[in-house]
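> agent: user asked for a holo structure of the chain below bound to zinc ion. Plan: (1) validate sequence alphabet, (2) canonicalize SMILES, (3) run complex prediction with ligand conditioning, (4) return tokens. Step 1... ok. Step 2... ok. Step 3 dispatched.
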Amino acid sequence: MVKILNSCAIAAALLLAACGPSGQSTSTMSPAPKVASTDTRVAKHLFGAIENASTDRPRVYGGYSTGCLAGGMQLAETGPTWQAMRLSRNRNWGHPVLIDYIQELSAKVAELPGWEGLYVGDMSQPRGGPMRTGHVSHQNGIDVDMWMLPPKRLNLTRTERENLSSISTRRSAGAYTNSNWTPEHREVLKLAASDPRVERIFVFPGAKVDMCRNETGDRSYLRKIRPWWGHHYHFHVRLSCPRGSPDCTPQVAVPAGDGCDDAERWVRDILDPPPPDPNAPKPKPRRELQVRDLPQACEALLTAN
Ligand SMILES: [Zn+2]
């Protein structure tokens, strides 16, 4: 649910597409010139219609918001310390490193009072790619949404998993946490961020500030907790590019420091919004991602076994 990244991702994709075959010369490492794709089909309809992962080895292609996933693994619908939610969406797929991460994190969370484990929200589609509804990112198999609702039981039926809702943990448009937010939520996010496989975590600004103010020990993990819009029914975990995926595009690194001043600034801006900048560039009109906007391997993945 990281919507602002979209225009950047599309701009980057368009730039690449605009380079054309002659643009290949900028990459001296390229083994052989490739012809740029001209496939203008809307990618989300194609990736959204595929029900199974490809059979090749697991590999991440492209970025979080313009990518795809080969050899995806399905998270078991129910495990000892988790349940995947909204099974009808068929978005409980990811790179094996994400599956491992979810299993291990949920086992740690299950030790906390009041938490039987984790309710796992959207991951990726079987072959990743853009989705027909909901997300801009979650495209390359290394993003996952975790529900803020502490699981009381892990035997929810399919129907219950469709109908049960998570809980919001914010008030004042995300400037503060509300009474659903507990010290255990802080602990869950700390556990989630302390794993070295994690690149960053998105959560509403009030939660980050609460964590900053309550942390009396090691603060290093706070750097990975990033304030963002929304993200009060769930938090969003993003892993770093895994080993063995040289075509995975990393995100610009999180700045140094714990980011607590930045989170405080977000909160101030929510409570007292700055006047709009008259010189701000007009938002560019978005268009749907087309197959040619994605890495070429993603086009091949559409028809791979
Ligand atoms: Zn998300």
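> agent: step 4 complete. Summary for user: The chain has one domain: 5-274+287-301. DSSP finds eight helices and 13 strands in the chain.
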